[in-house]
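Fold this complex.
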Amino acid sequence: MDPKSPVEGQVTRRHFLRNGARLMAMTGLGVAAGTLATRSTSAAWVWQLDPAKCLHCGNCATHCVLEQSAVKCVHAYAVCGYCQLCTGFFAPEPNELTTAAENQQCPTAAIQRTYVEDPYYQYSIDEKLCIGCAKCVEGCNRFGNGSLFLQIRHDRCLNCNECAISRSCPGDAFRRVPADHPYLLKTAS
Amino acid sequence: MKPELELFDRREFFRVVTKSAAILGLAGSARAGAAGQGTTNPFAYDISRFLKTDPKLISHEEVARWPVPRKEARRVAIGPDGQLYVCAGNYITRVSRDGRSGLQLALAGPASCVAVAWDGTIFAGLRDHIEVFDSTGARKARWDSPDPKTWFTGLAVAEKDVFAADAVKLAVLRYDRTGKITGRIGQKDANRNAPGLVVPSPFLDVVLHKDGLLRVNNMGRHQVEAYTIDGDMEAAWGKPTAAIEGFCGCCNPIALAFLPDGRIVTCEKGIPRVKIYSASGEFESVVAGAESFPENALTCNDLNDCVHGGIDAAVDSDGRIYILDLVAGDVRVMKRKV
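Structure:
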């Protein structure tokens, strides 16, 4: 028997190197595929808040990782009643129905009230001022049509892997939605 | 000797320090966790103070309560015989003051309002038309719909006229007793001093006051308006606020009645409550506050459910107030406290 010939079942240097190269290649492919899959998932799905589940708890204003929350109040104009006494805009006991600061319930005066015709007024949100506290949403839902509601604005949202607000949401209102339909909007029935 | 001055040896000292740090750390994280749960909402829309009524303001007490004979109650009226007429489901049921059902009028659709004339003639409002019955329940006439969108929600009857509140067409239609429309009241008209009715939800009501003027709830403007039967607005009162002296929400009051001395009874939804005002509109007292209608108070928490809540009231010749709770499906008989 030639002492240099390989013994059956014994791993030679050549076998070892070949198998090692194969293993490294497979591992590399797996990592590349995993990375691509993860990237494509995070791009295809984004966080959104379901207004039908929202409890207007105030956590959206305080639990977002951003200094000013990515959650903002939005307005479904087709649902709005254009009320003179908008319970989203006015404090429960307004002195009078004017835009004076003491009559408003928004802590940042982010709702603009514009006269349309007697006795109707249009309400619009100044998103730069809105902190997503849902105080107006609660007032509008409690006494009105619920045309004011919260949404995550995707020009601000960082789309965190685990949304900090969703972890604290008592209504379990946060979920991933397809990025090509990133909003859950209310429409007139 | 040095060892006698030491409280702990080194091993004991480190053990105590480690335990203390662990306890402090656990307590700190528990506290932080509790804060993170947000047990108090700094942005809360707080109306809790309006859900409990100052006892000093409550003028009436409940002396009886009975369930309405059918589901989906809508309106209650009182006839000249002192009996109640309850709209519920597709029926109008005549009910004695102690809650015993009598005559039942079957209708083609949901009964939305009712009024009874001095001669016992019953005017039944369905969504889009009116049917007329005599006091025995025999159908005498059907007044066809004046408009495809008509939604009658209130009726009042005078000696020669019937007034029907149309919540969609924003007017009170004046009929003669043959069913012919002779006027429209409440539409915006500067010549008649009428600002126009605003009716965000289907609860427009009309009553004929003993002073000869109609009272209409202009709910979107949060006021009660007085009209002549020809349609001239003579007066209006009401303040938009959730406070007890005013009318809250998008649209209140939702129903009206009046006491034998002419004072007005108002009903509200959202913060459900029944109150009494003088004929000229000064707040006087509370018949039943929001705490009396716990189920009704919850109906406005969900989107669009406000249209299913609400209260109506009727008053008998003795001044007893019959409150119909649309959510609980019962009638409460309220008597002035002694």
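The first helix of chain B runs from residue 2 to 5.
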